[in-house]
Amino acid sequence: MKFDIGILATQPVPDIVRQVRLAESLGYAAAWIADTHLVCRELWVTLGACAAATSRIMLGPGVTVPHTRHVSVTASAVLTLEELAPGRVMIGIGTGGSSAQTMGLRLEDVGRPRTAEAMAGGLRQLTRRESIRFESGSEGRVAWLKAPSALPIYVAGSGPRMLAAAGRAGDGAIVYASTSPPILRAALECVARGAAESGRRLGDLDIALWAPMSIGRDRDVARDHVRGRVASALRHPLPVELPEADRAAIARLRAGYDAFEHATAASRHRELVPDRFVDLMALAGTPAEIVEQVRAIARDVPEIGRIILLPQVPGDDYLGRDQILQMFADEVLPHVQ
């Protein structure tokens, strides 16, 4: 199993670059930078800076979205990044909850499988030096591209429809639907169904788990640290039906969610997240506890080939991202690889 990092780039770009260089030195496989432009630093500028400062770690958007960037713009951006970091670029695409909400859009309006599949298809054609037909009816291509580029495309999903779309359209699937093995098994059934519809098997895809993560000596502080990311995850549907009491709690959480606090551990909406949801949706606690959580996923859901760890920072009285990456590498990775 590979371990990646996901970064909400709310800190200055030089800080993000330093953190990605640290992740590379510690053996993390990839760094995924979030695309939520009113909350975080600009995606492609940040990725370009990270590419110039590293030499081995894979890089890509985690995830970029169709409602803020035209597919042709994204294609040109990712191909330019590939020039800076040849062989080290991957593309994550999704529906973009926080970027939509901060623009006043509803998740129901942007979270459409057809839109994500169309973006994946358009990116695949453009990066392979093929033409696509635009909404205007005219055709377009990346004129400066001299040779096709086979960049891996990952489609992210939480609910059954988006997970199936990931199986149909992605070279990989990013599963954002709990860290609980039984729920993950249900999620992979959805991905497998989509893969079968495109003539493939689940094993043909690289399956990644997008996992809110917080680690620390103080178990309670670590669990509190991750609640904001758990709140974010629960805005989206899950591949299973939860009990009525859970559904009522999630409805309150969604109503109280502030997208402009999407990237801070000290968000007010974190107070709406009960302990049960931390257990359900995150890797959180002491190093020993997280070792056991990761081992359970590896044992019960072996199809997952990589875990994208998403630490929630910044916030007062919490560990910084550098400390989190170092502690996970020192005290978890040796016991789970």
Task: Explain what you see.
With 337 residues, the protein is α/β, with parallel strands linked by helices. It has a single domain (2-336), classed as Luciferase-like domain (TIM Barrel), CATH 3.20.20.30. The protein is built from 14 helices and eleven strands. The protein has helices at residues 13-26, 43-53, 71-84, 97-102, 107-110, 113-127, 160-169, 181-197, 219-233, 244-256, 275-281, 287-300, 321-331, 333-336, and strands spanning 2-7, 30-33, 58-61, 91-93, 132-133, 139-140, 153-157, 172-175, 206-215, 283-285, 304-311. The strands form two sheets. Strands 1, 2, 3, 4, 7, 8, 9, 10 and 11 form a nine-stranded parallel beta sheet that branches. It has a two-stranded antiparallel sheet with strand order 5-6. Helix 9 (219-233) crosses helix 11. It is globular and about 55 Å long. The chain starts with a strand and ends with a helix.
